User: Fold this.
Amino acid sequence: MSEQLERDVTPMHQRPALRWLIAGTATFLIDIGSLKLLHGTLDLGLALSTVIAFAVAFAFNFTAARQWAFARTAREGEPRRQLVRYAVLVAINLCSTLLIVVGLAAAGVPYLDAKVVAASLNAVGNYLAYRHWVFAAPPVL
Assistant:
């Protein structure tokens, strides 16, 4: 491999966006799979199923984001502070997800399609919040 090509290949540990995308995809699969199981198979109410699926997925996501996707900066921060900030973000995401899924389903959109819309809208904001607020490196004094 040429020197130029070696310099252009960035190791995965230096690519938090790629790691976040992988962790986010796994989170989404857990979320949508749980929603399908709870509402589509077990016939729980849509709002309750949405909340439970969301909670299960985001518990996984916090761990994946802190331990893997943003590990370099997360290790430097205080876990309690990160968890509080993450909880704030989860509350915002839960409200928006619930409104989008239940609202679109009431308008006739299939609930799984509504879930895809909600996840897509939340994804960009979540990445930015994780990188620059939740798991940001503490300021150097």
